[in-house]
Each structure stands twice: as C-alpha cells, then as structure tokens.
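Support reply, case 0932

Customer input (verbatim):
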Amino acid sequence: MKHLIHKSDICSGCQTCQMICTFTFFKVNNPKKARLEIDRISDTETRMTVCVQCQERPCLKACPEGAITEVNGSVRINSKKCTSCGICIDVCPYGGIKYHPDTGAIICIQCGVCVENCPVNALEMVE
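Our regenerated output:
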C-alpha cells in the first residue's frame, strides 16, 4: 500500500495541498477541512500531520458507531454514520484524524491529489 510522505526540508508551507484537498472532497477552499495538516514549526521547517494508515487501526476498533471501516486496505470514515464522538481522535497515536463541525471526523485516504498539486514537490507517495 502507498503512503504519503512529507519532505519538510523543502516544503514552503504554502498550504496548496490543504486547499486542493478541501476543494476535491468538499468543493470549498477551507484548509481546516483538509485531510492533512501542514504546520510551520520554524522559519525553515514544516510538519505534516496525516493518517498514516497504521496496521493496528485503533480508530476502527474504537468507533462505537461502525463509521470507520477498511476499504481496499485503507481506513475510511463514513460521515453519515459518524456521530462526532471523538473517540477515534483520542485513540489515534499519530494525531491523524481531524474534526470539523461541518463534516465530523476527517481522515486522509492517501489519494495523492495533494502530491500531484504540490508546487515544490514536497509530498510523495511511496510503497
């Protein structure tokens, strides 16, 4: 399975990845709804927070509503079943699940749309 990798040493922090993500999935330009998060931690370095699609899948096991499933090896959240209880966010050891009041829990599905649109090639999909 492919995973999203962030090259913090070349990332400019422009948030193009977040903007294209929210436009692709929600048809809005709102970085707070992005499935990944880019934070500037210094003048020269950024940090990406994203679901790493871990093998343990504590979010899937903890969801009391069955809103989190595995589809073709990738964790997905069914927003229609999600009640925004936050348990998945609490149990994720990577901080990879986000919450937005309009959408509920949000998770990166490793689609690669951000990689294709990064102007400095700071994102990559690897096996």
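We compared this against your earlier run and they match. Two observations from our side: The mean pLDDT is 93. The chain has four helices and eight strands. Please reopen the case if you see a mismatch on your end.
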